[in-house]
Write a structure and sequence with these properties.
Layout lengths: L21 H19 L4 E6 L11 E4 L2 E11 L6 E7 L12 E5 L2 E3 L2 E3 L3 H4 L2 E5 L9 E5 L11 E8 L10 E4 L2 E12 L4 E9 L11 E5 L2 E6 L2 E6 L9 E5 L14 E6 L5 H5 L4 E7 L11 E4 L2 E8 L17 E7 L14 H9 L3 E7 L7 E7 L11 E2 L2 E4 L6 H17 L2 H34 L1 H4 L3 H15 L6 H29 L21
Parallel strand pairs: 1-9, 2-8, 5-9, 10-18, 11-17, 14-18, 19-26, 20-24
Antiparallel strand pairs: 1-4, 2-3, 3-4, 5-8, 6-7, 10-13, 11-12, 12-13, 14-17, 15-16, 19-22, 20-21, 21-22, 23-24, 25-26
Helix pairs in contact: 6-8, 6-9
């Protein structure tokens, strides 16, 4: 039987590389290169922290700097503690140099502020995140997303100063900083410092106006309308239109002072309530004196002036001054202690360069110098301390120093003095013997009326004598004398002018005495009824019929 050579298959291995594999290999290489290029040219991922992601959407909200897209928001998620929002954004390649420690991010959207309306372009395009490049060399990856744009860029030329104030709510971020009414800067931040227990404000004064800030400038609150009622009277001030509604802060060098040296960055200053209060801070040299008043100190406040015949010598420091122990009991002629400060610099150039105020005050105390409380304003009831000479004052024999403070003698003054004199006058009137005088006057009036009646009888008798026959037989001289006497007496007859005037005067005197009796009874019951209104007595009750 013949064997078939095709019954067994022969397997031959192919040793050549097929060109078909070139296409997939090239495709893989291209894909790998694309992935490498994509990831190698991606920008830096940063984190923005905010409390609300209103208007921000992942993949849609762009990050811009000077209206140029520099990044895109990739994700918006809540933080691990669920109290904040974390926004992941990627910055375009090559824009990492914009990210510095002092870079600022904020959301741009339509809003109305004190500078006007802004962000109207986002009504159609949607909100976006604005990036303000920083100047600090340190790079960071996390930033705080601000609600509003910063008032001054970190690289802006100018100077930043710090203000301290004991009161809150005086300034807000964005308020203007003025120099003689011209805006030169802005209030940047406002926060409370718990360590110092004061309000802390940061101001930015832009160049070239930063040269105006020197070591001798003073800052004060510049309100739109300032209304002040103090011991100096009532004062109304109206600021510029810039501060009319929102307020602001002004600064300047006090009158008569040197400009001083250029201020340093972040130098500290004090914020005064108004421009007038700056003058009190200029007098740092003072001598303290202690006053003891028997009168009420209601209306006397710290800061009230101490004057000598209209010239201010100092300031009231504390009312009442109770920091030291005084040997006096409240039930034994208690006196109110008041601490004042005599400031010699206020008299510089007014009384001579060699005028020793402290020595003169000691000498003047022996010659009647006394301190008294006087009214500064009847409208507000405020008081001030007045120093003047009272020659009738008693010699000052009390101790001159109490707990280290020299004591100045005091006396009652102003309305208290007037009240005391009025009370003394009323006491003297009350001590007069008015009742005997009224009795005597009434008796005199009755006697006068009796005398007039007797005079009328006498006139009638004289008339009869002159008309009788015997009168005709008298000598001519005697007749003439009697006729003259008769004519004179007729002037006092009823119906004559002299008689009517006399009767009228007596009736008026009687009426005055009757009207004076209720006043005298009131003064007997209450001696100060001329100053204070007396209580109305009970209405008379008619007696009922029996």
């Amino acid at each position: 039987m013949t064997e078939n050579k095709y019954d067994v298959a022969q397997v031959e291995k192919i040793k050549r590389w097929s060109p078909v594999w070139i296409i997939p290999i090239v495709t893989v290489l291209i894909g790998a290169w694309i992935l490498y290029y994509h990831f190698s040219h991606q920008g830096k991922v940063i984190t923005l922290i905010t409390t609300s992601a209103e208007g921000i959407e992942a993949g849609k909200t762009a990050i811009k700097s000077r209206s140029v897209d520099v990044g895109m928001v990739e994700s918006v998620v809540l933080s691990d503690n669920l109290r904040q929002v974390e926004i992941k954004a990627r910055i375009n390649n090559g824009m990492e140099k914009l990210l510095r420690k002092d870079s600022a991010f904020w959301v741009v959207k339509p809003q109305i502020g004190r500078e006007g309306i802004s962000g109207l372009g986002t009504l159609l395009s949607g909100a976006y995140i604005q990036l303000q490049p920083g100047a600090d060399g340190e790079e960071v990856n996390a930033f705080t997303l601000l609600d509003a744009p910063p008032l001054a860029s970190p690289d802006a030329k100018g100077i930043r100063v710090e203000l301290d104030s004991d009161q809150s709510g005086q300034l807000n971020a964005g308020d203007p900083v003025l120099f003689r009414g011209f805006r030169v800067g802005t209030v940047q931040t406002s926060h409370f410092d718990p360590a110092r227990r004061k309000m802390r404000y940061q101001l930015f004064i832009s160049a070239p106006y930063d040269s105006l800030v020197t070591t001798n400038v003073r800052f004060w609150k510049d309100s739109g309308v300032a209304f002040d009622m103090s011991a100096q009277g009532m004062r109304v001030e109206m600021g510029s239109l810039t501060t009319l509604f929102s307020g602001g802060v002004s600064f300047d060098v006090p009158t008569g002072w040197d400009l001083g040296e250029q201020a340093n960055e972040h130098q500290d200053y004090q914020l005064f309530d108004n421009k007038n209060s700056i003058a009190d801070s200029l007098y740092t040299v003072h001598k303290d004196y202690l006053l003891f008043f028997n009168d009420s100190v209601r209306g006397l406040l710290p800061g009230a002036p101490v004057e000598f015949r209209g010239i201010r010598l100092g300031t009231v420091a504390q009312v009442p001054f109770l920091q030291t122990a005084f040997k006096q009991a409240i039930d034994d002629n208690y006196q109110i202690p008041v601490l004042i400060r005599i400031e010699p610099d206020r008299l510089a150039g007014k009384l001579g360069d060699n005028f020793d105020l402290e020595t003169r005050i000691k000498q003047a105390g022996d010659h009647g110098l006394r301190a008294s409380l006087k009214s500064a304003s009847l409208l507000t009831g405020s008081l001030f301390v007045d120093l003047d000479f009272y020659p009738q004052a008693k010699p000052w024999d009390d101790e001159r120093v109490v707990n280290g403070y020299p004591v100045l003698p005091t006396t009652s003054g102003g309305l208290v003095q007037i009240q005391q004199k009025l009370m003394m006058t009323l006491d003297k009137i009350n001590g007069l013997p008015l009742n005997p005088m009224l009795t005597e006057a009434t008796s005199t009036l009755a006697q006068s009326q009796s005398t007039l009646r007797e005079l009328q009888k006498t006139l009638k008798s004289v008339n009869k004598i002159t008309e009788s026959q015997s009168m005709q037989q008298l000598p001519q001289d005697m007749q003439r004398t009697l006729r003259e006497l008769n004519s004179s007496m007729k002037g006092f007859q009823p119906g004559s002018p002299a008689y009517n005037k006399m009767v009228d005067n007596m009736q008026r005197l009687d009426q005055v005495l009757r009207e004076l009796q209720p006043v005298l009874r009131t003064l007997n019951n209450k001696s100060n009824a001329l100053v204070f209104q007396a209580d109305n007595g009970n209405d008379p009750q008619p007696k009922r019929a029996k």
